[in-house]
Design a protein that fits this description.
This protein is mainly α and 463 residues long. Helix content is 68%, strand content 2%. The strands form two sheets. The protein has a two-stranded antiparallel ribbon. The protein has a two-stranded antiparallel sheet with strand order 2-3.
């Protein structure tokens, strides 16, 4: 483990019991001050002077939301927060100190929260503009359980809440508001949920510590590495992706536990909570208020950020992505993908925003922008071979697809880890850009098979 990893691990571990202390306070303002005070101290500890960047981002964004019309505030907020990321990552070109890695983590999560906040304000205003109709009851439920109206102080306190400060998960302002206003917090099984979530941590943590001790991505950037055989270079990306997964699984499991002890994201199961979104069935959420509080079952699906089984065992890249960093996936889907008016550009622009959010290293763009052609290749192969296959044929297709899915993630992960254009291209070139070649091969085979199937169906209809 690197020194940075130890800092993350220690801060996450000590954050877990803070939730119990937070829930002891009676008033909303007391909870806000405690949670944001702890968060500000953590941010100051890991960022030092660079804390000023997150403060400026939150301050200006809060002013944008207060001053600019809700009709436009979300767009201005997006430009401001993502524009500031450019300056934040290039401060050394302006004679300012280069920001530390921990400060970058704080800035990334803050950017999502501030832009998401502006979108929530915009959506609240749009909800209020809808004319009365037969669905007034639905409108009332939305106003009660989804709309927000934070003050300037509320926004600043939300920005520095210690929960999710360094590693996520992303949570909406409304989720934060609901935590602060919980009326039956004593009935939420925070301890049991935390213990159950921690059961997978030893496997992830020990695997990461052992593997990262013997194998590092830095070695893949040395001349010595390229003296090894083609097969050694090709299969080196397998343990690299395992190490990356174990590292992130460990961090995200701990970060979910930080949420659970505080009661953040706890909603009645009957309300069908969704990751990032919160309750989907608002009528059921209202009905629950009439029940005996001790009989209500809760879950933490709203802050569920990683589903390791889904990541590991789903057969396609598209499905695997849905279970990875799930709250950030929700943010990208809700505030980027679904808002792009041109459907054909949605995936490309969403992946571009994701790459830019992660950083300005070329490796991020090389990796993330490989996703759209992979998804296209998966789609044409499924249409050509799986769609009309027998149940047994579909199972065989899924197993083969899973094998290639894992290789695709491993291939892209090298760009994500090596970061620089030179190192990423050098590695991919050393294995003959095999990932890209397979994508092209699948596109050609899938399209040809689909044409052949369509032609055969046409002949059968004629006969």
């Amino acid at each position: 483990m690197t020194p940075d990893d130890w800092v993350y691990a220690i801060l996450l571990i000590i954050s877990v019991p803070f939730g119990h202390l937070l829930r002891q306070y009676d008033t909303v303002r007391q909870k806000q001050i405690f949670s944001s005070g702890i968060g500000a101290l953590m941010a100051a500890f890991v960022c030092g002077f660079s804390l000023i960047h997150s403060f400026i981002t939150a301050l200006v964004n809060s002013l944008i939301v207060v001053v600019i019309s809700p009709r436009y505030c979300h767009m201005v907020s997006f430009v401001w927060c993502f524009g500031y990321l450019v300056f934040f990552r290039t401060t050394h070109y302006f004679g300012l100190p280069k920001v530390p890695a921990h400060s970058n983590a704080v800035q990334l999560l803050l950017t999502l929260k501030m832009v998401g906040l502006a979108f929530e304000i915009h959506d609240t205003a749009e909800n209020k503009k809808q004319p009365p109709s037969e669905q007034d009851k639905t409108k009332e439920l939305v106003a009660k359980y989804q709309n927000i109206n934070p003050s300037f102080v509320d926004m600043m306190l939300y920005a520095y809440c210690y929960i999710g400060l360094l590693t996520g998960p992303y949570f909406k302002y409304r989720t934060y508001y609901d935590m602060l206003h919980q009326k039956q917090s004593s009935n939420i099984p925070t301890v049991e949920s935390t213990i159950n979530r921690l059961k997978s941590l030893p496997l992830f943590g020990i695997s990461y510590m052992v593997l990262s001790h013997y194998m590092t991505v830095e070695y893949a950037a040395t001349d010595e590495f390229y003296e090894h055989s083609f097969l050694y270079r090709l299969f080196y990306m397998v343990p690299m992706f395992v190490i990356l997964r174990m590292r992130l699984y460990s961090a995200w499991v701990l970060s979910e536990c930080v949420c659970m002890t505080a009661g953040l994201g706890a909603y009645p199961v009957a309300s069908s909570p969704r990751c990032g979104q919160g309750p989907k069935d608002l009528q059921a959420l209202e009905d629950v208020e009439k029940l005996d509080p001790s009989s209500v079952e809760y879950d933490f699906e709203t802050i569920h950020n990683i589903d390791a089984n889904g990541c590991e065992f789903t057969p396609t890249v598209r499905e695997g992505m849905r279970f990875w960093n799930m709250t950030v996936q929700y943010w990208l889907a809700t505030y980027i993908y679904r808002r792009v008016p041109v459907k054909a550009l949605r995936t490309f622009l969403t992946m571009s925003v994701s790459a830019f959010w992660h950083g300005i290293y070329p490796g991020y763009y090389l990796s993330f922008l490989t996703v759209p052609p992979i998804l296209l290749a998966e789609g044409v192969m499924a249409d050509g071979f799986r769609k009309d296959a027998t149940p047994r044929g579909q199972k065989i297709f899924d197993w083969v697809s899973w094998i290639f899915k894992m290789r695709a993630f491993e291939y892209m992960c090298m760009g994500f880890l090596l970061l620089s254009l030179e190192d990423t291209v050098r590695y991919w070139r050393s294995i003959y850009f095999i990932g890209h070649l397979i994508i092209v091969m699948f596109l050609v085979i899938g399209v040809s098979k689909k044409k052949e199937s369509n032609s055969q169906k046409g002949k059968e209809k004629e006969s």
